[in-house]
Design goal:
The chain contains six helices and seven strands; from the N terminus they run E-H-E-H-H-E-H-E-H-E-E-E-H. The protein is α/β, with parallel strands linked by helices.
Length: 212
């Protein structure tokens, strides 16, 4: 008997789901320099195909977190930041450098969150008076890691000299910030997907995800 040819029509791949990136401007006041830096990162993430939401903490005015306060947890602004963090696959976190650390506004944002950050990916940008921003950036990365999140081993700091008047002009800083936007869009959905798959594995095989 002759062979019978079988033709299989390949279905076109489903359109990819855009990665979801939350950009947080972690200043308690209008901060034009930091807002420019996070806007550059947000623009790069959008160019990479991400759906981007932006959160300016000075517009939210969160209360100082009180652990276990039921009334505070029910506030619309607190529910808003938790819903946004839960929505996101990845984060671009921006902070001014205050006294060698992150802003109180950004630390307070962290204090309201935990499980919403676990298994997700973040990168950090900062503005400084003239230094490298290492302490503030390290503080943000440490907070995110202690929420069982993953951080990009690359960051960007914009000193005052990176601005001409109100404009961010330093091409090296702009280049670093743009790379961060692309990397968050690239890696965040992969990490979140693997973490979600691992969450349903019982025992040590599930790794840290199995604790969530």
């Amino acid at each position: 008997m002759g062979s019978v040819a079988v033709y299989i029509l390949a279905m076109p791949p489903a359109p990819p789901v855009p990665p979801k990136v939350l950009v947080v401007c972690g200043s308690s006041r209008h901060d034009g320099n930091l807002e420019q830096v996070v806007a550059v990162a947000a623009g790069a993430a959008r160019a990479a195909g991400a759906e981007v939401r932006e959160l300016l903490l000075h517009q939210v005015q969160l209360p100082v977190m009180i652990w276990g306060d039921v009334e505070q947890a029910a506030r619309p602004d607190v529910q808003q930041i938790r819903e946004q963090a839960e929505w996101a696959d990845g984060f671009i976190l921006g902070t001014p450098e205050y006294h060698g650390s992150m802003s109180g506004a950004l630390k307070n944002w962290f204090d309201f969150l935990y499980g919403e950050l676990a298994g997700k990916f973040a990168a950090v940008v900062a503005t400084t008076g003239g230094g490298t921003g290492d302490m503030s950036i390290t503080g943000v990365k440490t907070c995110f890691q202690w929420c069982h999140g993953f951080v990009l081993p690359f960051h960007a700091a914009a000193p005052a000299s990176a601005f001409a008047g109100i404009d961010l002009v330093d091409p090296r800083v702009i280049d670093r910030v743009q790379r961060i936007g692309y990397d968050v869009a690239r890696y965040a959905p992969l990490l979140r997907a693997e973490f979600e798959r691992a969450r349903i594995i019982e025992g040590p095989e599930g790794g840290v995800a199995g604790l969530h």
